[in-house]
């Protein structure tokens, strides 16, 4: 063929012993833009083919020396001769010559007498056709090379689902392709003979969809190959109106990775049970199912009581181990009949985070059922957990919300179960409570109070009252207890019994406590200046304040800034605060003692009441709780307890203060028992500082007038 730069369309070798014929042929070829080379016989034609590489050969059958058939055969034998188009010129009606021509490798033939006007066009057509064949062969070789290079198995199926072709890929070197079947097991077979029925049906269905839409589709399936389950993906593409090409790839690795990602996204890494995201999706599905099926379900929200304490005292490793065994125990507890209706129950239990777990109870017929599950969960949690040789006791608080009674969306149901759980905790822990709309109101007012408390200090809404402490022996006022009050802009005076727990919960107790301490120290110094008398100032310290690592610094700076003698400051702690974490308590007490302040135990008798324990803490005073005093003198039991406490405290060289003294009889009895100091409404209500100043300025200090 002519080079791409040539203006000629090709070079034709014309072999004929008749010079006239050759001349005419060259003339006709020239008409259509083709060049010609002449050969007089077959041998010359073979020689010229080799030396001049024509694009096409016109070979007369009958020639001297070597006839056209032999020349054709010779040329085909030559390596470069295979693809060149050869047109044989045969005698008219010589069918045998035509047959022979094809047998020896001719591409086409023209018969004599030659139709000269169309000869050139005929040659051009054959040239074009042969060019197309060359390109087709190249494309085919290219396709085969591509298919050989990719690891996938490929196959062709006809519309009826029969294999037309099958080429195993080479995914695993040395093992062949794991997705592939032997070629002979497929070609000519129907897919149902190769695959299990369900996979075959899906393949046929998708194949038809591919043919109908001419869009690519894929089919995922699992097969056991070489003793292991493998995942495959077959991508199907239409290659015509009734044929589909398929590429099969082993996607087991990808599936494994996907599963791992799914597990990471949906499983709680510590306990292995579903996490918040998974639970929310399960809840969403259950909501839809229950709405359409007109069914009910319950959401249980469980939180361990005092988990933080376990974490803080025994360490996070023990805390983590506890959460693991808690989740196992929950799994065992809720498995049997609670989740009857569902196939996959593993998603009905989840860990939302921290020590919060949720349980979904579908197909709830009676509320009792949810309460029973909660009861069982509570009991399961109460059994001791043995972790790293520690026997750990926990309890759980559980809140329950119901669909459709409490809400009809996931967020509300989860939030309400959480609200009910908080309510259960506030009701003394180890409780299970159903949600009710009034709880939201309670929580709202709680939240409102909290918002107000955050502003109370800045807005100067807090103030102190002081209750006198009287020495029994002399009847003189020797100290006061500072008691905080909150003047709420809307609610009026709020009792500390209401806002101190809230301040503890929110951590606001630390700045509030510091303000109380500074104000009280300041006031003690003010009295010292005005009345030239020293009163011991008692200040309550809550457990949270006691655990604050800056406590001693706060005390030091309050004393330093006000100039109060440390001996005139007494910090009141409850037994619970001291017993919480003995080691840390000792260290803090050590620091406080080094400062020189006094310590006393408030509300004594209501908690552990362990004298031995108190001895170790070296406290100055014991305050007998008012619940023992209020029944005196009639309540003989409380009288005996009060007497015993006073005697034992004296044995340990402690001062005893009786709280809540309201009557003369009580005072007389305490005097008789040898009580050192008394405090109570009978001797003075908590009063503003001005009232105490007046008492102090009187020549003989008497009890102050009651204050609101
Ligand atoms: N029935 C009766 N009650 C009497 C009598 N005498 C005194 N009281 C009341 O008994 C409580 C004694 O204080 P508490 O046991 O430390 O109990 C305190 C204390 O635990 C806490 N609190 C008060 N102020 C503070 C503070 O500044 N910081 C901290 N952390 N807690 C405080 O709030 C609790 C309650 O304080 P208040 O309401 O002021 O209640 C005070 C006081 O008003 C009496 O004769 N009869």
TrEMBL record:
Catalytic reaction annotation: 3',3'-c-di-GMP + H2O = 5'-phosphoguanylyl(3'->5')guanosine + H(+)
Span of domain Response regulatory: 11-127
Keywords: Phosphoprotein
Taxonomic placement: Bacteria, Pseudomonadati, Pseudomonadota, Betaproteobacteria, Burkholderiales
One Pfam family it belongs to: PAS_4
4-aspartylphosphate sites (modified residues): 60
Residue span(s) of domain GGDEF: 295-437
Annotated GO MF terms: cyclic-guanylate-specific phosphodiesterase activity
Limits of the EAL domain: 446-700
Protein's name in the database: Response regulator receiver protein
NCBIfam families, per the entry: GGDEF (TIGR00254)
Gene3D superfamilies assigned to the protein according to its UniProt record, in alphabetical order: 3.30.70.270, 3.40.50.2300, EAL domain (3.20.20.450), PAS domain (3.30.450.20)
Gene Ontology BP terms: cellular response to nitric oxide; phosphorelay signal transduction system
């Amino acid at each position: 063929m002519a080079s791409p730069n040539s203006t000629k369309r090709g070079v034709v070798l014309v072999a004929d012993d008749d010079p006239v014929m050759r001349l005419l042929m060259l003339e006709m070829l020239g008409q259509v833009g083709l060049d010609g080379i002449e050969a007089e016989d077959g041998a010359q034609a073979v020689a010229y083919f080799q030396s001049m590489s024509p694009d096409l050969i016109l070979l007369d059958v009958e020639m001297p020396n070597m006839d056209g058939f032999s020349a054709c055969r010779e040329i085909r034998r030559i390596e470069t001769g295979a693809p060149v188009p050869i047109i044989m010129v045969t005698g008219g009606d010589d069918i045998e010559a035509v047959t022979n021509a094809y047998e020896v490798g001719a591409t086409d033939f023209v018969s004599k007498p030659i139709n000269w006007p169309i000869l050139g066009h005929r040659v051009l057509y054959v040239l074009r056709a042969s060019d197309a064949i060359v390109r087709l062969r190249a494309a085919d070789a290219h396709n085969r090379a591509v298919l050989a290079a990719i690891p996938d198995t490929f196959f062709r199926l006809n519309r009826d689902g029969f294999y037309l072709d099958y080429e195993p890929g080479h995914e695993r070197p040395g093992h062949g392709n794991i997705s592939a079947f032997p070629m002979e097991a497929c070609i000519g077979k129907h897919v149902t003979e190769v695959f299990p029925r369900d996979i075959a049906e899906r393949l046929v269905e998708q194949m038809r969809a591919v043919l109908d839409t001419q869009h690519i589709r894929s089919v995922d399936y699992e097969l056991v190959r070489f003793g292991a389950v493998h995942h495959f993906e077959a991508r199907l593409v239409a290659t015509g109106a009734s044929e589909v090409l398929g590429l099969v790839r082993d996607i087991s690795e990808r599936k494994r990775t996907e599963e791992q990602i799914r597990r990471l996204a949906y499983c709680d890494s510590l306990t292995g049970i579903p996490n918040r995201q998974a639970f929310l999706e399960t809840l969403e599905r259950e909501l839809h199912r229950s709405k359409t099926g007109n069914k009910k379900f319950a959401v249980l929200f469980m939180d361990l009581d005092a988990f933080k304490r376990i974490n803080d005292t025994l360490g996070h490793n023990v805390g983590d181990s506890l959460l693991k065994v808690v989740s196992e125990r929950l799994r065992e507890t809720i498995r049997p009949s609670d989740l009857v209706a569902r196939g996959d129950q593993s998603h009905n239990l989840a860990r939302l985070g921290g020590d919060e777990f949720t349980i979904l109870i579908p197909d709830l017929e009676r509320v009792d059922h949810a309460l029973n599950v909660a009861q069982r969960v509570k009991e399961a949690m109460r059994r001791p957990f043995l972790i790293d040789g520690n026997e750990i006791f926990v309890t759980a608080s559980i809140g329950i919300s119901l669909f459709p009674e409490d809400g009809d969306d996931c967020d509300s149901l989860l939030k309400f179960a959480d609200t009910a759980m908080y309510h259960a905790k506030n009701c003394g822990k180890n409780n299970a409570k159903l949600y009710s709309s009034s709880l939201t109101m309670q929580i709202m007012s709680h939240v409102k109070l909290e918002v107000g408390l955050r502003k109370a200090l800045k807005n100067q809404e807090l103030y102190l009252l002081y209750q006198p402490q009287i020495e029994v022996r002399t009847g003189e006022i020797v100290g006061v207890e500072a008691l905080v009050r909150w003047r709420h802009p809307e609610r009026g005076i709020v009792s500390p019994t209401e806002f101190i727990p809230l301040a503890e919960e929110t951590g606001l107790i630390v700045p509030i406590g510091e303000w109380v301490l500074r104000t009280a120290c300041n006031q003690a110094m003010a009295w010292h200046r005005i009345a030239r008398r020293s009163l011991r100032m008692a200040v309550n310290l809550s457990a949270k304040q006691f655990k604050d690592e800056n406590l001693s610094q706060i005390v030091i700076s309050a004393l330093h800034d006000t100039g109060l003698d440390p001996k005139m400051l007494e910090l009141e702690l409850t037994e619970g605060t001291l017993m919480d974490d003995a080691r840390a308590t000792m260290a803090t007490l050590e620091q406080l003692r080094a400062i020189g302040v006094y310590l006393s135990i408030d509300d004594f008798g209501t908690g552990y009441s362990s004298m031995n324990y108190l001895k170790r803490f070296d406290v100055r005073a014991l305050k007998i709780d008012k619940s023992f005093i209020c029944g005196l003198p009639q309540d003989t039991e409380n009288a005996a307890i009060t007497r015993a406490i006073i005697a034992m405290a004296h044995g340990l060289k402690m001062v005893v203060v009786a709280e809540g003294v309201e009557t003369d009889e009580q005072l007389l009895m305490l005097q008789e028992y040898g009580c050192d100091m008394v405090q109570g409404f009978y001797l003075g209500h908590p009063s503003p500082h001005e009232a105490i100043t007046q008492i102090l300025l009187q020549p003989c200090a008497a009890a102050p007038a009651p204050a609101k």
